[in-house]
Amino acid sequence: MKAFLQKLNRMSLIKQIIIGLIIGIAAALFAPEVAVELSLLGVIFVGALKGIAPVLVFFLVVAAVSKHRAGQKTGMRHILFMYVLGTFLSAAVAVIASFAFPTILHLAEAAGDAKPPEGIAEVLITVLKNVVDNPVHALMTGNYIGILGWAVLFGLALRGVADDTKEMVSHISEAVTKVVQWVIRLAPFGIMGLVAESIATNGIEALIGYAKLLGVLLGSMFFVALIVNPIIVFTYLKRNPYPLVFKCLRESGITAFFTRSSAANIPVNMDLAKRLGVNPDTYSISIPLGATINMGGAAITITIMTLAAVNTLHIQVDIATAILLSVIATIGACGASGVAGGSLLLIPLACSLFGINNDIAMQVVGVGFIIGVLQDSTETALNSSTDILFTAAADFSRNGYPEDINAVKMNVSRNA
């Protein structure tokens, strides 16, 4: 047994995750009662990531801002531009896909007591309120807009203190990072539990009736991940973007797909950014910020679901309205994390552009919950992997590209 564990420990984390996937799928298919028990592993893993992520973000940002030197470039302007551009282009791809492959919905029941925002103004006001949230409450609830705002202020306040105090904050952030690495080591067990529960609980029957809608949604997300994002990265790096793209999808996208939480994937992205050699002053801010505003996958979901409702009701859509929908989806997606229910509850907002009443729009949201097993997982994988992709691309464009991107291994040492 000891020899087996040592051999397993020397195996790459990606291979361990694949083994966990296989075990989880097998348990769900052949021993559903065992799969239900395994789900506890997934709950613990996601809970640990969500629990440590706010603390990690807070101390990393405080340490980075307090030690930041005037004139030192972080590339945040370029990253923000890529975030917004990527989200808008994702919405545009969704519009084109919806026109090319129009889908009709068999509307289900409305989605419970969920309350969508009444307009873009409400979404933006929610984001602004989150910025000034009580800092302790922000940490407890995982409000990353608020965490970033207060962390920046604390960092600025600490700029004038003694260097020893700044070093203490840095040491705390390093200790929290070490804890995060320990949690990430549990990924194979966590993903095994998550996939076992998902398949055992939901199966695939509920998805068959929406195969075409899922095909348009997932196809658009894959197109953005494999075509649009690489083009954006290429314009900055002026070299083959795919080694970096595939690394981000493999090491960030896989965990995000199964955790279905951009917040839970923040520690994973930060760990990858550190191993890629990205400037901590950059990724400590851009990664948590991306988890709140970089929402290409959400823009795709909002756009395609809305246009599916439009097709169902036989409403004619012109090019100008389609462009306006892309803009609304971009703005709404950027504020999705500040709205209970995420991207699905922003569908009624987009539907209002076409005069679709709230009752019908909420039935569209109900359809979204039915296909959420795959839709939300793929959406989160695209959103989160793009955070680290654009962050790394902006940093490499200034500081140089690593000689061998594939030589950067996942942290699997026993002392990690």
Topology:
Blueprint: H1 2-10, H2 13-30, H3 32-67, H4 76-100, H5 120-131, H6 135-141, H7 144-157, H8 163-184, H9 187-202, H10 205-208, H11 211-237, H12 242-259, H13 266-276, H14 280-293, H15 296-312, H16 319-334, H17 347-351, H18 358-370, H19 372-399
Written account of the structure:
This protein is mainly α and 416 residues long. It has helices spanning 2-10, 13-30, 32-67, 76-100, 120-131, 135-141, 144-157, 163-184, 187-202, 205-208, 211-237, 242-259, 266-276, 280-293, 296-312, 319-334, 347-351, 358-370, 372-399. The longest helix has 36 residues, at 32-67. Helix 2 packs antiparallel against helix 3, helix 3 packs across helix 9 (187-202) and helix 5 (120-131) runs parallel beside helix 7 (144-157). It contains 19 helices and no strands.
Question: Which ranges are low-confidence, i.e. pLDDT below 50, for 5 or more consecutive residues?
Answer: 109-113, 412-416
Radius of gyration computed on alpha carbons: 21 Å
Counting DSSP H or I runs of 4 or more residues, the number of helices is 19
- Principal-axis shape equals globular
Number of strands: 0
